[in-house]
UniProtKB/TrEMBL annotation:
Record's protein name: ABC transporter ATP-binding protein
Region of interest: Disordered: 1-37, 289-313
Pfam families: ABC_tran (PF00005)
Chain intervals with Basic and acidic residues compositional bias: 291-302
Biased composition (Low complexity): 14-37
Family matches, as SUPFAM superfamilies: P-loop containing nucleoside triphosphate hydrolases
Residue span(s) of domain ABC transporter: 47-285
Source organism (scientific name): Novosphingobium pituita
GO-annotated molecular function: ATP binding
UniProt-listed InterPro entries: AAA+_ATPase, ABC_transporter-like_ATP-bd, ABC_transporter-like_CS, P-loop_NTPase
Keywords: ATP-binding, Nucleotide-binding, Transport
């Protein structure tokens, strides 16, 4: 068994892979109203969460939480620290067994699965955990090969290596990064290496947990652009947990807000701003929110409507 990147405590996810006052009802922005009749629900909404309850002892994290993620969107997931964003993601990918509720991913029930191995669609999603969760004793290329070995043991070493090299390039790393160890990479390069591994199986769904945390603003903006470009090119559906307001303005189609143990609203930033929830107002209209909006407006003026960023204008 390989040791994990020692800049991080070994997160269990890697092994599995290979202030808010009372909240209003989230009624105004429910996606089901927009669902075209000709599509099956799972085709339109690859992720459906209903009545999710998660507790740790007496600490209730989610209480009858509902969420639909639309196919092909980048959904930003925000909320104060400890509101349960990561627990929600872990529940969706089957790493956290909820107390109640149902979760369907790509039409399959996650909550009915007996264990991790029972989830036969794990190869159809990729996950970039906080910190990257890379194996420190493996090179970047070998890290990317881990899911390939697990799900496609029959492919040859040469082909597996070739796929890994392609994913490394796809993630914006230079070719020579393939043979480097995580300890030889900068924080931004580690994120890209983690992304390369998340993309190794050509997933339909991409889960990103605070991908720009710890990056400098230029590195964070470059990572945002990479995600937006990959989403557009590969047709991914992206579930993106972030505290980064610039990321929300730049690349997210919609934003889901967690508070009071629920998703209190889902919509575009203008739609969220039209609500009067105090946390939402404080979040987007506070000093940082206004700065992010101003930056986005300036960027939109510079790049025009055809740029890859500026989804919230
Ligand atoms: N395995 C666990 N055992 C006990 N409590 C847990 C466990 N995992 C998470 N929690 C608790 O659940 C709550 C939500 O955690 P979570 O990591 O989902 O928050 P978050 O919204 O992602 O926060 P942040 O923005 O700070 O990353 C926290 O109070 C956390 O301490």
């Amino acid at each position: 068994m390989s040791a994990m990147d020692d800049t991080q405590a070994p997160p269990p996810e890697a092994q599995a892979e290979a202030a808010v006052a009372s909240a209003p009802e989230p009624a105004q922005l429910q996606p089901a109203q927009l669902q075209p009749a000709q599509l099956q629900p799972d085709a339109q909404f690859p992720i459906r969460v209903r009545g999710l309850v998660n507790r740790f002892g007496s600490n209730t994290i989610h209480e009858y939480l509902d969420l639909d993620v639309r196919r092909g969107e980048i959904l930003g997931v925000v909320g104060g620290s400890g509101t349960g964003k990561s627990v929600l993601m872990r529940s969706i990918i089957g790493l956290q067994i909820p107390e109640e509720g149902s979760i369907e991913v790509l039409g399959r029930s996650i909550t009915d699965a007996r264990d991790d191995a029972d989830i036969d669609i794990r190869s159809r999603w990729g996950v970039l955990f906080q910190g990257g969760a890379l194996f420190s004793t493996l090179t970047v290329g070998e890290n990317v090969e881990v899911p390939l070995r697990e799900f496609y043991p029959e492919i040859t070493d040469d082909l597996r290596g070739e796929i890994a090299r392609y994913k490394v390039l796809l993630s914006g790393l230079p070719a020579n990064a393939t043979n480097k160890y995580p300890s030889e990479l900068s924080g931004g390069m580690k994120k890209r290496a983690g992304l390369a591994r998340a993309l190794s199986l050509d997933p339909e769904l991409l889960f990103l947990d605070e991908p720009t945390a710890g990056l400098d603003p230029i590195g964070a903006a470059a990572f945002d652009t990479l995600i937006a470009d990959l989403q557009a090119t590969l047709g991914l559906t992206v579930f993106l947990i972030t505290h980064d307001l610039d990321t929300l303005y730049a690349i997210c189609d919609r934003v889901a807000v967690l508070a009071d143990r629920k998703v209190i609203a889902v919509g575009t930033i203008p739609e969220l701003l039209a609500t009067d929830h105090p946390w939402i107002q404080e979040y987007f209209n506070g000093p940082r929110g206004r700065a992010a909006k101003d930056a986005q407006d300036r960027d939109a003026d510079r790049t025009g409507p055809s740029g890859t960023t500026g989804k919230q204008d």
